[in-house]
Amino acid sequence: MVCQRLIMLTTAIFINLVVSSIVVAQQKPPHIVFVVADDLGFNDVSFRADDMHTPNIDRMAREGIILNSSYVQPLCSPSRSAWMSGFFPFHTGLQHDAMHGWQKAYLPGNLTTLPEVLKSRGYAAHAVGKWHLGFCNLKYTPTYRGFDSFLGYYMAMEDYYNHTQGGGYDFRNNTAVERNVIGQYSAHIFTEHTEKIIRAHNKDQPLFLYLPFQSVHEPLEVPQIYIDKYCSHIGNTSRRIKCGMVAVLDEAFGNITSLLSTLGYMDNILLIFTTDNGGPVPFAGNNWPLRGSKHTIWEGGTRGTAFVWSNNLFSKTGYTNDGMMHAVDWFPTIIEASGKKFDEYKIDGMSQWDTIRHNTPSPREEFVYNIDTMANMFAIRHGDYKLIHGNTGGLDDWYPVPRVDGLQEEEVAPPPPSGPFRLFNIKEDPEERKDLTETQQDILNQMKTRLDAWRATEVPANYPKNDPAANPAKWGGAWSSGWC
Which prosthetic group or cofactor does it need (predicted)? Predict the structure, then answer.
């Protein structure tokens, strides 16, 4: 009898230990990898466009959750400010255009950034790639905004090989100018450096990798081998080069995720992939069948390609989620995924963690595409409806994938607007072909009231004149901090 009780007690202790270890494993914060593709259009991945080559991206997207209503800003730095702060750009002064190197423009220094919060919760945080959130003072640069390290460039764009733009060199290793990479293609540099970070990291500590690639922003440059291998079937010259650039991005994504898998990170990881805005039609980006281009508040400029992947965090995978989500939502979503809700102060973002993790309805019913008084550009979404007032950003048509040199004509030329407002039911008409301003007066008036309420909260845009103190010639030929 004593022996039997001893066996039962031992068994109970063993079961409790096993259960406890499972609970501890489940509570362990996941590694978080946030991959950003620059200027990747809605129709620039091969799970939507036959002419592209993205097998690694496709596989992870289909195994994970494709976010079919994931919205971003029309331009680069506004989207990045939303991710890093959780605020709509018109609440931080970054709603007008994108930052330029000669401007004293930056993500406000009083805002708590995403890596700062993650660092306070035990994460290591590294940024590799494009910053574009200010550099005129060191305090606005990545290693002063929460990141342990930074390799990449400060501004919006540059040559992929010599890393210059606007008469200055722009490449940094933390805060030091890094010239040893001249002649190397940026996607290869960023991939190799990311792999070094992963190999050197102690996997017992949660890792946050922010990987905003230069690819596939203009200029249209790519090693010829990628065109020859994956894109020779494309007749349009610009689109053929763009295809090669997308293929390099896919290769980089595949190499990084493969290493993460080999080293065991994928057993507890949240992988996020998103673009920062729609594809630029003049530079071979494509958003078909959505209307518009980068720079615009049409769906083609703001509805981004995005997906999430995890091996252990989601109750359902392998499907497309149509829940409404905005760039500002990534801040609280990532914080909650790390193990705790972010409630330290009120932000515009709403956590989508339950939506992603358990396939529940999105908590978001409304968001702002942009409010920019300087550009006379205003647009909001509430429920199924979208209201546009004023300037749309141009490029108002629908642009199929080009098949000959130059842009192919739009499928249907848009009719001229009947007034200063345009109203669409995005659920029924995601291509924005049927303006409802004449037939839905009640909804139009309701939406106007909502837009006015949002407009009343706009912060003046921080879009100063160029400052000659920024001239790279004064800083050894490199775009540098220290002049504001």
Answer: Ca(2+)
3 state SS of 99: coil
- 40, 259, 419, 450, 459 from 96: Cα distances, Å: 21, 39, 24, 21, 11
Catalytic amino acids? Answer: 76, 132
Residue 7 in this model has a pLDDT that exceeds 50: no
Ordered structural domains, the chain, with CATH: 29-364 (3.40.720.10), 372-455 (3.30.1120.10)
d(CA 99, CA 304): 21
Count of C-beta atoms within a 10 Å radius of residue 344: 10
Query: Which element (helix H / strand E) includes 403?
Result: none
Q: What is the pTM of this model?
A: 0.93
Phi-psi region of 194 (alpha: psi -120 to 50; beta: other; left: phi over 0): alpha
Query: How is the chain split among helix, strand and coil, in percent rounded to 5?
Result: 35, 15, 50
Handedness of CA 233, 235, 237, 242 (dihedral sign): negative
User: In the structure encoding, which two tokens stand for residue 422, read together?
Assistant: 């345009």
Can you read off the two tokens belonging to residue 252?
């980089």
